[in-house]
Design a protein that fits this description.
34% of the residues lie in helices and 26% in strands. The chain has 208 residues and is an alpha/beta fold.
Length: 208
């Protein structure tokens, strides 16, 4: 979908995804010590704001200006500061090796664009930092609920793990996870991948 289509969707009444963080994002990050976080394709800011409420210094980017405006309003209502920006995550300048957490949640793109954003996101993770991806899994198309109706937009664990390894990150978790959806006859199937860039001290030890 183009940014204009997302603008129209976000312009509808009410928060599209609700105010609470994604359940997997919350579970995977709630025990982390706060630092600098980058939320790519942040939508209306639910994950970025949740992180900010826990002491993170968050930069969040989305190509929908309507979503970003909503996110700014929601952050103000909840009394937190997030550096929201309108931009395409495939092109927006990202500070390299700068973030303790880089988050990619439900960004569904064609294969070549997925590969590009994975490399850009991985490069933004500082030594010792964490990369976290949650998205609609390919199995969800035939076996799950919701999500894009185009298989070419869906993630696989193998695809992400391979790309992150090439980018120098160590995969700590790579799973297909079930997400119950209220009123749905079956759960959604998501991809969840957590990976870390080794601290510089660890890299030095392995090389020496």
């Amino acid at each position: 979908m183009k940014s204009e289509a997302w603008d129209a969707r976000y312009a509808e009444a009410g928060l599209v995804w609700g105010p609470a963080p994604n359940r997997f994002v919350a579970a995977e990050t709630e025990d982390l010590a706060p630092g600098r976080a980058l939320d790519l394709a942040c939508g209306e800011g639910r994950n970025a704001i949740w992180l900010a409420e826990r002491g993170w210094r968050v930069t969040a980017i989305d190509f929908s200006s309507v979503a970003v405006n909503r996110a700014r309003c929601l952050a103000a209502e909840r009394g937190v500061t997030v550096d929201f920006a309108v931009g395409d995550v495939l092109e927006a300048p990202l500070e390299q090796a700068a973030y303790d957490l880089v988050l990619l949640a439900y960004l569904q793109l064609p294969l070549d664009e997925r590969a590009s954003v994975l490399m850009r996101a991985a490069a933004a993770v500082r030594p010792g930092g964490l990369f976290l991806l949650v998205g609609h899994d390919l199995r969800n198309y035939a076996e799950g609920h919701g999500g894009p109706r185009r298989p070419d937009l869906l993630w696989t664990v193998a695809e992400i793990g391979g790309a992150l390894s090439v980018a120098g990150l160590t995969v700590e978790r790579a799973d297909e996870v079930l997400r119950d959806v209220e009123g749905a006859p079956r759960p959604a199937i998501d991809t969840l991948v957590r990976a870390r860039r080794q601290p510089e001290s660890a890299v030095a030890r392995s090389a020496g």
